[in-house]
């Protein structure tokens, strides 16, 4: 099949891609940076008429070359990108420091950095990002503090994924700073594999109580136990947030006593909004069955059994 022809622009209409290419070629020569092979592949596909709104990078590149790319995208006001994803791209901290400059391109809605070794900061320029995934970047509590500075007044982010980022118990307060903004629109919060422990997870649970948009939270394997403070925070969260339907509490030290208290709460009237609760395998089978009968879930997130006909 022959390549698609790019649609012709109306008379007097600026071809934004053409302008971007002119500036990009000029900037590459001026700064003497190597070409990024993935960018060259994307450009070739676009020249053949393919619509490339997601720019995915999965191999190492020269940080200065990425800086020139970001600068040119902003310079050319190129707004036809909806997502930028970087996976295993080497020195992600350098790339991440340049990426906010590109965030002046307001159309980007998804930004994902996985296993890039970055330190972490918010999407400072672009207020339209609705998914931010920073999984497996070990920026820790210091990084999430910086991240909270960029996201503490964000009203468009719908999904935040910080799985396995080395966030300690002090990091819970900074995640809370992101959540407590009155216009915060977060729907899904993923914090799996961190080290929030009791104090950190209580800070997160308390901040979630008034989040009307939030529907799902994942705190699997955050090394917390069923202390009175944790159980109290969870029960208050069950009661206060009627939109939060899915809780992944698995991989933590929740015993029979703590799980029984949660079951007792869920069995009370007014908790039908809770649809799924996943807990550790350590609790008794009857506790799992009680949770499954009430909301589904269980340690492995199994589906509710249907009634026999």
From TrEMBL:
Domain of life per record: Eukaryota
Region (Disordered): 288-309
An MF annotation (GO) of this entry: small GTPase binding
Swiss-Prot/TrEMBL keywords: GTPase activation, Leucine-rich repeat, Repeat
Entry GO CC: cytosol; nucleus; perinuclear region of cytoplasm
Keyword RNA-binding included in the entry's annotation: no
Coiled-coil positions: none
SMART domains in the cross-refs: LRR_RI (SM00368)
Gene Ontology terms describing biological process: nucleocytoplasmic transport
Entry keyword Repeat: yes
PANTHER family: RAN GTPASE-ACTIVATING PROTEIN 1
Protein name: Protein NLRC3
Gene: NLRC3
